[in-house]
Amino acid sequence: MSDRIAASKTADKGATRADEVRLAIEEDIFLGRLRPGTRLDEESLAQRFNISRTPIREAILQLVHAGLVEKQPRQGAVVAPLKLHRMVQMFEVMSEIEGLCARYAARRMSEEEKQALKRLHDTSKAHMEARELDAYYAVNRAFHEAVQAGSHNEPLQEIARGLFARLAPYRRYQLNHPSRVKDSFTEHDDVVEAILAGDPEAAYTAMRRHVTIQIDIFTEFVSIMGGNEIQ
Amino acid sequence: MSDRIAASKTADKGATRADEVRLAIEEDIFLGRLRPGTRLDEESLAQRFNISRTPIREAILQLVHAGLVEKQPRQGAVVAPLKLHRMVQMFEVMSEIEGLCARYAARRMSEEEKQALKRLHDTSKAHMEARELDAYYAVNRAFHEAVQAGSHNEPLQEIARGLFARLAPYRRYQLNHPSRVKDSFTEHDDVVEAILAGDPEAAYTAMRRHVTIQIDIFTEFVSIMGGNEIQ
DNA sequence: GCTCCCCTCTCTGTATACAAGAGATGGACA
DNA sequence: TGTCCATCTCTTGTATACAGAGAGGGGAGC
Question: From the list A16, A54, A93, which residue is nearest B159 (CB)?
């Protein structure tokens, strides 16, 4: 399994082993190979990546501060087992943060940025109509990132990215919902229209509603699954 | 200088050396003993705290992820030298985040929390009238933290704390401004009134304005100092 | 005299060895 | 048979040793 590092896409020149390990574990969490609650044993990880425990520890620390992993002194690290009420709170914040991004984007996006956003949106329409779920999901993410970048506020983007990363492990449950893709597209439509028109409040409202709806879907999913801790 | 760790206030049972070092460096940054741009040499720090480089490295990593320190692979760590435009962006986000906290607080604070907030506010009034600047500053921080806690949204509080930590090194410039304390108190007054009355939008507006004013003061300070990078 | 290249030296990144705490396990006693 | 305590083991935290990358200085060439 030590080929994992070599397989890492981001072979940055200056990157350290710790960075590579972090990316690999991050991906494992995102893709569900490492599920919330899973113990991260330093020694096993060291063997898996064929390196010493030192860079493993650094990688885990980075993940702890990204909120993806929890760690108690002398008691090891586990993939963050999100409590339901905390997830709802995170979605709540996410809706405000993304709404804020949209508001700023409506005011600050250049004409080029607006056209790029429009193109992304059109691409997603094609994927929707072709029922290409994975592709739609990918473009959906790019769409949100474009709006975040359009805010022209780096700290805000960092916050949005951080929240997205922490919610990502759970997001895969969402687009399975029947007709969700079509609704999602319609909501995006409102956002794009408001941003292109340069209407900050409409953009804020549209984006905030779009993300808020995800909370409903998520809680619905959870109520079906039962339990107040998702593992 | 190795007594620094022993002198640490938070002698938590489970805390590691790395945590203690992090707290110590954090305090140095907040109090201006370590100024933005200062190089953090692992070996010197290890000698200063009389421990090995390993926990020092972990502490630095934690500070990097808190945004207080910047680090390039193989080129060491420096206390984050904030660019002016980034600082303004951070204040911009901070005003929205704190406004959001106030909005939620107006809806969600219990009667006990509201009374505690009122008491804090009364205390700060006493300090203002007695012209006790440091005491006012301390209570001011407690006031903001109380509102944040009143939001009953942990991720939101974490974001607010993170931004506060990153802005703290520069905040000391602010309350020196003539009559700032009195204005600050008046603005707090509006916030308290709105929260006690349970008026979310008024609370949001009042808090947002309170923080936004700090941007003006800050940019004024910078324009006096000149330069677009603060060291 | 200036510039460019190479060497050296310092500091970071990684490996490995050691220490210490937390949980598990087994035995003894009630 | 159940519970409590001691010990033991396993994992994490820390120290130290080693390796390798960058930066800086000195010398050679132009």
Answer: A93
Residues with Cβ within 8 Å of A197's Cβ and at least 6 positions away in sequence, in order, are: A106
> Would the CB atoms of A93 and B16 count as touching at under 8 Å?
no
Note the CA–C1' distance, B75 to C10, in angstroms.
11
CA–CA distance from B146 to each of B87, B92, B179, B199 (Å)?
Answer: 24, 21, 24, 17
Judged by a CB distance cut-off of 8 A, whether residue B72 touches chain A is: yes
Among A39, A21, A23, which residue's Cα sits nearest to residue A31? A23
Residues of A in contact with B163 (CB under 8 A): 155
Given a contact cutoff of 8 angstroms between Cβ atoms, the answer to whether A199 and A106 are in contact is: yes
Query: What is the set of domains in chain B, with CATH numbers?
Result: 3-79 (1.10.10.10), 84-225 (1.20.120.530)
Closest nucleotide relative to residue A46's CA, C1' based: C15
- Successive 10-residue mean pLDDT values, chain A, 231 residues: 36 71 89 88 93 93 90 91 85 95 97 96 93 87 95 95 82 65 92 97 97 82 59 46
| Cβ atoms A222, A179 nearer than 8 A | no
Tell me the backbone φ, ψ of residue A229, rounded to 5 degrees.
Answer: -135, 125
List bases, strand C, within 7 Å of protein CB.
11-17, 21-23
Burial B60-83, CB ≥16 within 10 A → b, else e:
bbbbbbbbbbbbeeeeebbbbebe
Q: Residue B35: how many CB atoms within 10 A of its CB?
A: 13
